Amino acid sequence: MIWLINFAGLALIGLIVWWFWLYRPAALLANPLPTDSEKRTILVEGGVYLPARIQLPAGQPVTLQFLRKDPSPCAEMVLFDGLNLSQELPVNQVVDIVLPALAPGRYPFTCQMQMYRGELEVVAKEEKPAET
């Protein structure tokens, strides 16, 4: 019986380590990069951000719209630590967050307890060769 309790405890520790440190958000949002006027909507529901990974163009400001459906206290804030940006998310209200022009790279965003996690992947636009 003791070995069963120890096994269950180790399995629970493994699950916690996976969820908080090893888990990566689902695949990138498949839609093309937004234009200057396009907004991206992120749904906060069921313990996750949907979509959890978003690809954005480098060098131009982008507006993200967060719609929080989850009444959990953990979901009431979104933090962009690398950008020193945070925003309160009221339930059932769309909140616009304007991001400045970003350099290419990955920018994680989380709730204040880091249970909800997402990532912005900022990519440089491919330059078209000049026609002669």
Present the secondary structure layout.
Layout: H1 2-22, E1 39-45, E2 48-50, E3 53-57, E4 62-68, E5 77-80, E6 85-88, E7 94-99, E8 105-110, E9 117-123
Parallel strand pairs: 1-4, 3-9
Antiparallel strand pairs: 1-2, 4-7, 5-6, 8-9
Helix content: 10-25%
Q: Could you please say which CATH topology applies here?
A: Immunoglobulin-like
Radius of gyration: 18 Å
Distance between the termini: 79 Å
Structural class: alpha/beta
Number of helices: 1
What kind of sheet is the major sheet?
Answer: 4 strands, mixed
What oligomeric state best describes the polypeptide chains here? single chain
Could you tell me the number of beta strands?
9
| CATH classification class | Mainly Beta
- The strand order across the widest sheet is 2-1-4-7
Q: How many domain regions?
A: 1
Uncertain parts: none
Would you tell me the overall average pLDDT? 82
Report the β-strand fraction as a percent range: 35-45%
Order of helices and strands: HEEEEEEEEE
Shape: globular
CATH architecture: Sandwich
- Say which CATH homologous superfamily is assigned: Cupredoxins -  blue copper proteins
